[in-house]
Recover the amino acids of this structure.
């Protein structure tokens, strides 16, 4: 999930104007903290964490014919992702969630100033 959000942000930032990029940068850390908090709260509710594990494997397929008429095989490296459960210390997850809430409040308070700085830096946008 985090990887998809990061990829989306990168794709959006590639097309963004300097003003839009400034606004994206201003909001990025708060968005990351919000995603981490959501993950911690889900871990607390479930009682365990869920981790994505990527596994590589070789995929073999027929990719042509040899001079002797037999099939030619090629190999391509592929991967798949699975989710695995992991035990967590619920009290530690709660402490981390509390820290993320505090960090989120601080970043929210700073966000208006960062947005104003973007507007001042790129007037008329």
């Amino acid at each position: 999930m985090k990887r998809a959000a990061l990829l989306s942000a990168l794709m959006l930032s590639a097309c963004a104007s300097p003003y839009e990029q400034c606004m994206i940068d201003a909001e990025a850390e708060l968005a990351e903290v919000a995603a981490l908090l959501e993950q911690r709260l889900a871990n607390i509710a479930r009682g365990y964490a869920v981790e994505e594990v990527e596994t590589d494997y070789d995929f073999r397929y027929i990719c042509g014919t040899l001079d002797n008429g037999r099939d030619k095989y090629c190999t391509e490296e592929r991967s798949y992702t699975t989710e695995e459960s992991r035990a967590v210390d619920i009290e530690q997850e709660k402490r981390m969630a509390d820290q993320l809430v505090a960090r989120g409040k601080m970043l929210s308070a700073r966000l208006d100033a960062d947005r104003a700085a973007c507007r001042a830096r790129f007037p008329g946008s």
Remarks:
- The chain has a mean pLDDT of 90.
- The chain has two domains: 1-47+89-125, 48-87.
